[in-house]
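Worked example 3. Consider a protein that binds flavin mononucleotide.
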Amino acid sequence: MNAVRYYSRGGNTKILAEAIAEELQVEALGIDAKIEEEVETLFLGGALYAYGIDKKLKAYIEQLDKTKIKKVVVFSTSWLSKHAIALIKKGLKEKEIPYVDEFIYARGKPNNKEIANAKEIAKKYK
Ligand SMILES: Cc1cc2nc3c(=O)[nH]c(=O)nc-3n(C[C@H](O)[C@H](O)[C@H](O)COP(=O)(O)O)c2cc1C
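Given these inputs, the predicted complex is written out as structure tokens:
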């Protein structure tokens, strides 16, 4: 089973989450939804806000259960910086939760090409 969780203030990251979820035929859920069952690949997304990720996303990463998650694919949107990806991966590393090197990213509101790319990457983990 795969899962998609995201934090999005303005809707941009949500667009990527929904594209990934559509490809995987699962639901894209916000970070109030805990991971209850074992997940093969968790797609976890969040954006950068003033050089940081939201503290709710940080807290979500901190409560993840490594015994339930085989690996994570990180996704993000921002104006310019991909730093949110590094911050999410840092949190995962601290929890000893494996993540893959590749990530899904869009600059601001995802365009059709970025949406297609997100789906292409998600497809590999089906
Ligand atoms: C308060 C605020 C601070 C931001 N700071 C940064 C930043 O430091 N670097 C950057 O590249 N983008 C920054 N952005 C842009 C967001 O990362 C970008 O709009 C992103 O797509 C928002 O995702 P969301 O719509 O899912 O909330 C900022 C946006 C906001 C609203």
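Take a moment to read the result before moving on. The pocket of flavin mononucleotide is lined by residues 8-14, 47-51, 77-81, 108 (CB under 6 Å). The mean pLDDT is 98.
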